[in-house]
Amino acid sequence: MNNKVTIAIDAMGGDFGVSVTAPAALQVLKKHKNVHLVLVGDEKKLKAQLGMRNRGNKRLLIKHASQQVEMAELPSKALRNKKDSSMRVAINLVKEGAAQACVSAGNTGALMATSRFVLRTLPGIDRPAIMKALPTFDENKKVRVLDLGANVDSYADHLYQFAVMGSALTSAVSGIKSPKVGLLNIGEEEMKGNDQVKHTAQLLSDSKHINYMGYVEGDDIFAGEADVVVCDGFVGNVALKSMEGMAKLIGVYIKKELKRNWSSQLTALLSYPVLRRVRKSLDPNQHNGASFLGLQGIVIKSHGSASQKAFAIAIEEAIIEVEKNVPQRIGEEVGVILEEAEFV
Description:
The protein has about 350 residues and is α/β, with parallel strands linked by helices. About 45% of the residues lie in helices and about 15% in strands.
């Protein structure tokens, strides 16, 4: 990196708060020499957690916030009553230009509501969307899926906008000139799907700017054929949670079978390196960090239960998006495409 990158971190968010966010920040600073981090939260707790490890470190600042958004708190309540929360203050730093991105493991609904209120959406974008990179059969390739829960009711033109944003981010971050975009559906046949999906498919097919490959079924998401998969937030969130649950289920079954008897335990010992690599590939924490697309600023959502290593991965996602200037890239792409599509 040649330029300074400053990330604001909601240090109180998530299931574990400062016990995860503070050491993750130190981990990232050790790896990225041109990154500056601002830990936002209870100053006393942060200083106690960091101890002597932050002494003399000019690239890690602490900004006090007197409130904290609880994981089960209503987004409307957090937005109205928690103006000095670590989440709100961290997002404000992005708005003010003191930071280039915000990372939080906090309440997803509150984070989206606050981000949208403070940062606003890009011109031409009706609704922001949540996007995340997931593994594929090809270990060197990822597929990015959106929307993963920001919008439970979306119209076809919203899904078209999601495709535009997802394509622009994938092109910027992955260096793919013309990402292949698939539309999640219950089948590949043209006659299948509801009116929303069919209308969206027509918009994507007619677009001169989207490399639309057609319908993608749920079991094809990981095939690696598509670079971007588009769906509404209700379907996307259910699909994501099902994927994560299945990964855990596979892990539990494997562990039970390998402990069943002495021969299984011997097999486990011999195959441990392979099993460890498989577990790592399937672990949701290895793919932590979902992007809030469509905002006039970068906001990355971490798993609430993220470990130190996983939270560090979310911070690194923010660094990449800052370096690639993702909001500007999306804004330029959206401005051209949506204007031609008569959406603005």
